[in-house]
Amino acid sequence: MNGFEFQCGTKMIFGKDKELCVGEELKKYGASRVLLVYGGSSIKKNGLYDKVIHALKEAGLFFEELPGVVPNPRVSLVRKGVEICREKDIDFLLAVGGGSVIDTCKAMSFGVYYEGDVWDLISGKTRPGEKRIPVADILTLPAAGSEESDSCVISDETIPMKTGFGSPLMRPVFSIMNPELTFTLPPYQTACGCMDIMAHAMERYFTRTPNVEMTDRVTEGILATVIHNLPKALENPRDYDARAEIMLCGTWAQNDMTGCGRQQDWFNHGLEHQISGFYDIAHGAGLAISFPAWMEFLSDKQECIPKLAQMAVRVWKVEMNFENPRETAKEGIKRLRSLIKESGLPLTLSEAGIGTEKFEMIADLMTNKGTHTCGSFYPMNKGDILTLLQMMA
Amino acid sequence: MNGFEFQCGTKMIFGKDKELCVGEELKKYGASRVLLVYGGSSIKKNGLYDKVIHALKEAGLFFEELPGVVPNPRVSLVRKGVEICREKDIDFLLAVGGGSVIDTCKAMSFGVYYEGDVWDLISGKTRPGEKRIPVADILTLPAAGSEESDSCVISDETIPMKTGFGSPLMRPVFSIMNPELTFTLPPYQTACGCMDIMAHAMERYFTRTPNVEMTDRVTEGILATVIHNLPKALENPRDYDARAEIMLCGTWAQNDMTGCGRQQDWFNHGLEHQISGFYDIAHGAGLAISFPAWMEFLSDKQECIPKLAQMAVRVWKVEMNFENPRETAKEGIKRLRSLIKESGLPLTLSEAGIGTEKFEMIADLMTNKGTHTCGSFYPMNKGDILTLLQMMA
């Protein structure tokens, strides 16, 4: 186990009807002028919007609204939010939505105190300072884990480029998590969210750091719980307990508790960011295509087989083939593919309507034209990435 | 899963040599006048004391010292600490030790701002206020989990009575956890600590709340990790990785992450508090005697068998006996007893030199003379407790 620092002070307020307390909770944290940030019409359709407005008014809080956050959230809206915060003297950001909405608020929260263009912070040109407007959220989509994480991902649609930044001060101060708010999620979004959660677990699981037993076991627990509850949530979208388990997993998979003391990989997220920079594909769908293919690619590498087999046995309940651990690893990957398929997610780029035309460019971007490698569990060079992309085709 | 709130903002600073940064870390948190609290001579023998003093001086911090904390820490020392804090205008408490030292600091931290006697807070006569002196620690004994927990346990040796109180503000602001500092722990203390960690996991695991899959799995992971690493640490006290796993488990077993969304039991801690009120027995040793006996007692109760069998299968790797789940449960208990025995801990009260003379009094105290029950997984009445005590004899 490596040395590490870990701190996550986000207050998790979990359970039925908890969104009703949002006004009072904001006041406890000293809010007086709130910017309410959300996406499109879904929170208006399901009644959440009205509840939030009522709670803010009841608490006597001043508030402005900023709707319009889209998946792969855009820097243009972040810039707009920064202006509103300055003009209206906003002292608290309330995100109502999923990772895109929360990430938009996170970027804004530091952008307000930065004199230059907020893209400097997002792209890493400038490091974030110590000042930020606090962020809280009402979570409606278990997926990104942004409700407790210390980072955000924003796209500049004009370049195009999708990238992110982080700070220990970026974690939301509180997060309201009511599983009932996810009852109306369409099956495809539910499945994409679960794939994102599993990916966050696996990006940390696949490590070369030895002796990480406790964090491995928590990660295996997250994966097993998602695998068990995703089919239930798809079968019955109003299954409170399945939705609750998935919601809790989403947070714990990404608050970095399971990343403590280990090198993490993140090759698949890097690849997905490139792909979704060029194509309009849901983050979870991109990960559903890349992760099993990447694992398949690694199942031919002797040094990767033990961990792949461990996951197969402990998470996918494959019986260990002691004579041929590679077969065990491959059976685990097969079961992951089955879950993805049964959940209605794509397994190939062509299923997602994506061709081969950008493969060379993607591989170049990820390796700085073949001069670098990507990932740490198995450092992928340009040739590896091209092979993998063909496997994903 | 029940609704819940969870917040744990303690910063975990984990790894080799991390204690060397304690002065700088205290300054980051605004400390200027520190009270250094510790137990006896062990931190002087192993060099930790000198390192801490050096770090405090290097950082230019004023500090006073309060040694003399004993296991089952005493309110008399808490009172003395409160006086020192007031006289010397202390603004930060630094605990160097295990749960007893940290708990002493926690009680002091609220006592300073309470006008009456601190025992009012400890015994629950008065609720703690919103003001407290911040506490940080350098952990030397993985056991109580006080390094992230929101509660403390203090004894009044004159009554005698052992009780505790808590507050969301009671969690330490940071905790320095260097597994190397536990290399010199004697085998008996190592085993007692691990038993305490397992007990914290099990007090939450045994619940009647249905649908608590994710938290069950984390708890099972904690138990499996301790079971795997305790024999290694006993075999080779300088096994860094085994010590590191145990240290991490100790924190996660008691920061209440695994208690989220469920009713908890705590019968065994209640029983142990009574026993150690009358007899001089290490907390972990008391739990080693009571827990397997309690589980044995419950293995005759139809409604308790499924959870006992789940633990046996998932934690102790017992093969499920589908025809007779009770046998599965009993095999799990047998394996717990084997671990306890092999670790050098007692399995009966007589092994610990404790007779039967106080049984009636203990059962009376726990049930208010037979009018109440204790615990929630299986509410234990006075007769149950007497039966259990006979099983423990």
Structural overview:
Chain A has 15 helices and 8 strands. With 393 residues, chain A is an alpha/beta fold. Chain A folds into 2 domains: 171 residues, 3-Layer(aba) Sandwich (Rossmann fold); 208 residues, Dehydroquinate synthase-like, alpha domain. In chain A, a hairpin with a 4-residue loop joins strand 6 and strand 7. At the A-B interface, strand 1, helix 8 and helix 9 of A face strand 1, helix 8 and helix 9 of B.
Task: Tell me briefly what this model is.
The structure is a homodimer of 393-residue chains. By secondary structure, the first copy, chain A, is of the alpha/beta class.
Low-confidence region ranges of chain A: none
Question: Structural class per helix/strand content of chain A?
Answer: alpha/beta
Shape summary of chain A:
globular
**CATH fourth-tier homologous superfamily of the largest domain in chain A:** Dehydroquinate synthase-like - alpha domain
CATH class of the largest domain in chain A: Mainly Alpha
Q: How many domains is the backbone of chain A divided into? A: 2
Question: Can you write the helix and strand succession of chain A as a string?
Answer: EHEHHEHEHHEEEEHHHHHHHHH
Helix content of chain A: 40-55%
Distance from N terminus to C terminus of chain A (CA atoms, Å) equals 37 Å
User: Gyration radius of chain A, to the nearest Å?
Assistant: 21 Å
What characterizes the major β-sheet of chain A? 6 strands, parallel
GO cellular component, one term (chains A, B): cytosol
Domain Alcohol dehydrogenase iron-type/glycerol dehydrogenase GldA (chains A, B): 10-179
Organism (chains A, B): Eisenbergiella tayi
Keywords (chains A, B): Oxidoreductase
